[in-house]
Design brief:
It is built from 9 helices and 7 strands, in the order E-H-E-H-E-H-E-H-H-E-E-H-H-H-H-E. By secondary structure, it is of the alpha/beta class. It is globular and about 45 Å long. The termini are far apart.
C-alpha cells in the first residue's frame, strides 16, 4: 500500500491535471501539502506524441510539481466509460493513496473522456468504502470530492488565485512538449477551440480569475455541501479584501 497523501488528483489523460489545476498543484507544493496524480489513460489515441513520449513527459511534470507519486491505470484512451470496472480501478487507487481530498475532471465536458472520467470518479465513492470489494487495500472514505473545469463553462464553487505562479504553470505545460510546443495548425490537426492551446489556457484562467478580482484563477466545483464547525471555517476562503 502506498503512503497516504493529503490530495489525490485524477486526469483522463497525462496532461489534464496540469492543464486544469497546474497552478493549484504548485501552490500545494509551496504549502507542504502532499499530493499524488493518477492518469486514467496514456493518451495513446492523441494526434501528437506517442504513449512512451507522453509517459516521459508526465514523469518530468510530476517531478516539477513535487508530486509524491504519479501512476497510470492504463484505461483505453477514447474509450473511457462510467462502468463498474472503471469505478473499481479508481476506488483501488483511492484506497491505496488514502487522500483526504479527491479531485477529478468535471463530469460535463465536450471531450467524452473528460466527462466519462468525472462520472466514473464521482461514482467510485461507494466502491472506496466497500468492505467486501475484491481489493488488497482497506476501505477509505475521503473527506470531499472536488471537480475541476477544463472546457466546460460552469459557475465555480471555488476559484483558486494562481496569479503569483501562472508563469510557472506555463513552464509546467511546456514540459508536455508533444502537446504544447506548437499550435494545432502547426501540428496539422484540427483544433477543437482556439488554435493556440496555451493562449486558450491563459484566456480561460484569466476569466476564472476575473470572477474573484485577480489576474488568473483555476476553478473547482463541489457537488455536495461542505461541512464546517463554525463560521471561522470559511475565513481562509474569504474573497479579496
Amino acid at each position: 500500500m502506498s503512503a497516504s497523501v493529503d490530495v489525490l488528483l485524477f486526469g483522463a489523460h497525462p496532461d489534464d491535471v496540469e492543464w486544469g489545476l497546474g497552478g493549484f498543484c504548485l501552490l500545494l507544493r509551496e504549502r507542504g501539502v502532499s499530493f499524488a496524480i493518477v492518469d486514467l489513460t496514456r493518451g495513446e489515441m492523441g494526434s501528437r506524441g506517442t504513449p512512451a513520449i507522453r509517459d516521459e513527459e508526465a514523469i518530468r511534470a510530476a517531478a516539477f510539481l513535487g508530486a509524491v507519486a504519479r501512476e497510470n491505470l492504463g484505461m483505453p484512451d477514447c474509450g473511457l466509460a462510467d462502468i463498474p470496472e472503471s469505478r473499481r480501478q479508481i476506488a483501488s487507487a483511492v484506497r491505496r493513496h488514502r487522500p483526504q481530498i479527491v479531485i477529478a475532471p468535471y463530469w460535463e465536458d465536450r471531450h467524452p473522456d473528460h466527462a466519462a472520467a468525472g462520472l466514473a470518479i464521482r461514482n467510485s465513492f461507494l466502491y472506496c468504502t466497500l468492505a467486501k470489494l475484491d481489493d488488497p487495500n482497506p476501505p477509505h472514505k475521503p473527506g470531499v470530492f472536488l471537480y475541476y473545469l477544463l472546457h466546460q463553462v460552469h459557475q465555480p464553487s471555488l476559484v483558486v488565485d494562481t496569479s503569483a505562479i501562472f508563469e510557472r504553470k506555463l513552464e509546467l505545460l511546456r514540459l508536455h512538449e508533444s502537446q504544447f510546443s506548437r499550435t494545432a495548425e502547426e501540428f496539422g490537426v484540427l483544433p477543437m477551440g482556439v488554435g493556440d492551446y496555451l493562449f486558450g489556457l491563459e484566456s480561460r484562467d484569466r476569466f476564472f480569475g476575473s470572477l474573484i478580482g485577480v489576474r488568473f484563477g483555476e476553478a473547482l466545483v463541489i457537488d455536495l455541501p461542505l461541512r464546517i464547525e463554525s463560521l471561522a471555517g470559511i475565513l481562509p476562503f474569504r474573497g479579496h479584501e
